Amino acid sequence: MSRSPASGWGIEGVRPLVYHSEMHDLRDELAGLVADVTATLEAMRLQGTIVLPVGDRIGASRSPEPEPPSPAAYSRGGADPGPARRFEPPRPEPRAAPIPPSRAEPRPVPAPTIAAPLPEPRPSPPLGSAPELVVRTVTTAPTPAPAPAPGEGAMFGGGFGAAPTGGGLLGAWGAKLAGPEDRLAKVVAELGPTCPACGEVTVTGVGGVRNGLVLLRTPCTAAEAVVLGNMLVRVVGVEPDDVWTAAPRACATCADAVKRQVEAIKPRVVLVLGEAAAAALGLSIGVWGSFGTIAAVATFHPAEMAADANRKRPAFAVLQEVAGRR
What we know:
By secondary structure, the chain is an alpha/beta fold.
């Protein structure tokens, strides 16, 4: 092919044909793009994402809106399609106004109670203006009670109608209700400071009087007192200071004084230590007897047990019996 000077190609008309084919391709591509955009917008309109009038669809080629059917079509038995419905997006539901939180009504605070003011004290009258008071004491002699008739106030033949005789407010009844300390103090006061027979100091004891035990013994040395205290604590179960202890003499008057004091204490058991003390009170070693009206028993003295070890066993046996009786 040879290119002509006018067209630049050897054959006339070849270049215009190529140009027209390229234009057709561009038009087809543009039409495809318009169709794609139109389909996308239509889908968005149907989904409610965008709202477009039905007659304002974007596109190069718009399809005319369908005409309403003629009345003749309905007369041939066709159903009335009704007016065309347009798609409308759902309207948002109105929201209810928020309900404010309920608050409890405050309770009324009662008014404070104000006490009534106290009346003002009246001023006392000045001295000399008040009348003088005269106090008179009238002494009257007590009226003696009438003497009871014979047999009056007696119960079961008499004996309870008359008041007991004796000193104090309760008389003899008070003496029976008194404790051992009071009874012992009364007896010691009646005995006096010295014995009328031998002239020695009256024998009195020391220690507690409420343990049910009285100890009569001859005097002990310091070492013997320790041994005796251990025996009382371990075997009898009592402290030495809690036991009323006295040292009787061979004098009969002194022995009687000790007996009166023991009867005032009223223990359950009288324990006598030593052969000499037992003989003075009429008792034998290891044999139960009585000291006045109270049970008594004698055993060996700590000095006698120290001199003869064979006396310890019978002495401990007697102490065990005393522990069971007191």
